[in-house]
Amino acid sequence: MTDQPARVSPDDISALLARLAALGPDATLAERLAYHERKAELLSRIAAVLGTTDAYDVAAEAWFQCQQLARRIAAEGEPS
């Protein structure tokens, strides 16, 4: 085994896009956060493989979006 992250496969991207399509306008904040976390994780893996500043910047922005949603959930709460 190596310390290299697993490459992002077409199946990974298809699953992410399917998850996005399933969200819909009535998705909860928690559901939206789960999608954004998965997106950020995939972008981080891509950045680790590419090793470019631009790729790391995009991944960082995705994680920032996750942070914003998590803060919103903490502030507003999530309805049961």
Task: Write a structural description.
This protein is mainly alpha-helical. The protein has a domain at 28-80. It contains 3 helices and no strands. Helix 1 runs antiparallel to helix 2 and helix 2 runs antiparallel to helix 3. The chain is globular, with a radius of gyration of 14 Å.
The secondary-structure class comes to: mainly alpha
Please report the total strand number as a whole number.
0
Based on Cα principal axes, name the global outline. Answer: globular
Mean pLDDT score: 91
| Largest sheet: number of strands, sense, barrel closure | none
Sum up the structure in keywords.
single chain; about 80 residues; mainly alpha; about 0% strand
Give the secondary structure arrangement, pairings included.
Blueprint: H1 10-23, H2 29-50, H3 53-76
Helix pairs in contact: 1-2, 2-3
Outline:
75% of the residues lie in helices and 0% in strands. With 80 residues, the protein is mainly alpha-helical. Helix 2 packs antiparallel against helix 3.
